[in-house]
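Here is the promised in-class demo. Please do not try to memorize the tokens; focus on the logic of going from shape to residues.
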């Protein structure tokens, strides 16, 4: 009888040792910075972020004595809103999903090739070169389109102010609203969301839109350069949009689109404009931006 008791006791001690709650690293210990950064995203005191291996971390459930999230990369991207606690997480195999920092669940499993932070109740995921939108439970959002993913200059697919920039099959960009309708038609080379506006780039032109669709500025430039001939400043300027150049007058009115690789004066009233870096040809422009013969 005593032998059985001691065997059972020894087995209990062994099981407890095997399921001992891992300690979070302390300041100065390896992995402290990584685990501390990740711990800031966890919103439930029963979870503990602990080192795993090879720079990975795991999330341990203190009471259940088990991992609720194992071996994930520490570069988590948090986009927590007032209504959500979902955190974008990358697994050790490079796949993405979402972890709930309050419940410890993964409503969107770590199975997607790409994913973007949750915003306004939606997140975009990519598989097999197709991007689609999911809700916080991992269900497809009705009405929102799928679209191709091909390394487009758009760097994220995140809703802001009820709007999101997406590409179409013609390799151009547009903006959709939360119903999937086009807010800005897909005809732009690039789109950038700023805090107070959207910058839309066409070949040789950039436009500033408000979040209500109004045009705030039809002529946005990257830079303006004076044009000199024999140290004399001329009546027109060169302006730059997306590493291309055009002519503008002293009042700031565009005389050409910014479609040239370079513009340089050959006389006070004549300018040589390069067309293509692979073609040595050029055109001559007059003071009104017209091509001369």
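The designed amino acids, position by position:
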């Amino acid at each position: 009888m005593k032998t059985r008791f001691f065997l059972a006791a020894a087995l209990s001690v062994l099981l407890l040792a095997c399921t001992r709650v891992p300690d979070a690293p302390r300041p100065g210990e390896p992995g402290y910075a990584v685990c501390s950064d990740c711990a800031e995203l966890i919103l439930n005191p029963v979870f503990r972020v602990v080192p795993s291996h090879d720079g990975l971390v795991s999330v341990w459930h203190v009471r259940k004595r088990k991992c609720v999230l194992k071996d994930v990369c520490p570069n988590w991207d948090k986009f927590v809103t007032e209504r959500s606690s979902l955190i974008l997480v990358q697994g050790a195999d490079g796949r993405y999903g979402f972890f709930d920092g309050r419940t410890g669940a993964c409503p969107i499993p770590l199975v997607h090739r790409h994913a973007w932070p949750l915003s306004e109740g939606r997140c975009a995921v990519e598989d097999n070169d197709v991007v689609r939108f999911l809700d916080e439970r991992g269900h497809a959002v009705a009405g929102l389109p799928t679209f191709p993913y091909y390394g487009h200059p758009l760097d994220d697919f995140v809703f802001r102010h009820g709007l999101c920039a997406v590409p179409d099959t013609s390799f151009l960009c547009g903006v959709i609203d939360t119903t999937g309708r086009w807010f800005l038609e897909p005809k732009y080379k690039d789109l950038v969301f700023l805090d107070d506006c959207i910058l839309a780039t066409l070949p040789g032109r950039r436009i500033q839109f408000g979040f209500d669709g109004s045009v705030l500025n039809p002529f946005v430039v990257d830079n303006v350069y004076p044009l000199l001939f024999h140290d004399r400043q001329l009546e027109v300027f060169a302006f730059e949009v997306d590493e291309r150049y055009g002519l503008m007058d002293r009042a700031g009115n565009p005389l050409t689109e910014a479609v040239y690789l370079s513009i340089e004066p050959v006389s006070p009233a004549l300018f040589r404009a390069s067309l293509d870096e692979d073609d040595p040809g050029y055109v001559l422009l007059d003071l009104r931006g017209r091509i001369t013969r």
